[in-house]
Amino acid sequence: TYPNRVYYPADTPHAVAVGGTTLNIGPGNSYQSESWWTNGTDGSKGNGGYGYSWHFNPVPSWQAPFTNAFGRSVPDVSAEAGDGIMVCQGMLNGLPACRAIGGTSLAAPLWAGVWALASQAESNARGTVTSASGSYLYSLYTPSSINNPFHSPSTMTGVGNYFSHVGLGSPNILNLVAKAAGPPVITGISPASGPL
Q1: Tens digits of residue pLDDT in 18-28
Q2: Are the CB atoms for 179 and 172 separated by under 8 Å?
Q3: What pLDDT, in 10s, does the model give residues 30-69?
Q4: I need a surface site. Which of 58, 70, 77, 97 has the fewest CB within 10 A?
């Protein structure tokens, strides 16, 4: 068997691969930490969605400082996957057909929503939108900074994770949106003169 093997298209360097975490909440619903979704407690490996490309995609240059994997490493980022949310669609016997969606099937849409907020902020601030794919998210990473747009993946380890790359981490949404929008741009001053 080949543990942590990832196949196309999940391993393409131009996709944003999203892993799953279990969120740990602090007092007042504050962010405390995260761990890999299930941490392999059910006997499985890689439930957080991590692995590396098998034979096809080498480690991209922009990811090389973050991993010593044998190929393109996933995930790039991660999000809540543990508790799940109730999704209802259509009707079954006259009642809404509802079921809980969790895992990386929850984490990926959550990340898409976060990136939509970041893209809107960038569009409002600069009139452009940058794709999150490829090296862009890695260029936003600022280690050892209170302004880092990612919660550190250092807490996202456990029994189920024996892999060398656990991504950039989960979004610190406020910092990520601010970083994507970029610094303020002065477009005019009014009035142009006057008392201090």
Answers
A1: 988 888 888 99
A2: no
A3: 888 887 776 555 545 456 777 888 767 898 999 988 888 8
A4: 97
Residue 133 near residue 189, CB atoms below 8 Å: no
Residue 26 identity (one-letter amino acid)? G
Q: 110, 2, 9: which is closest to 46 by C-alpha?
A: 2
Q: Please, is 186 exposed, middle or buried when counting C-beta atoms within 10 Å of its C-beta (0-12, 13-18, 19+)?
A: exposed
Task: Identify the three-state secondary structure at position 161.
Answer: strand
Look at residue 10 and give its three-state secondary structure: coil
What are the angstrom distances between the C-alpha of 74 and each of 89, 116, 193? 31, 21, 54
Burial of 78 (0-12, 13-18, 19+ CB in 10 A): buried
List b or e across 134-173, with b for residues whose CB sees 16 or more CB atoms inside 10 angstroms.
beebbebeeeeeeebbbbbbebbebebbebebbbbbbbbe
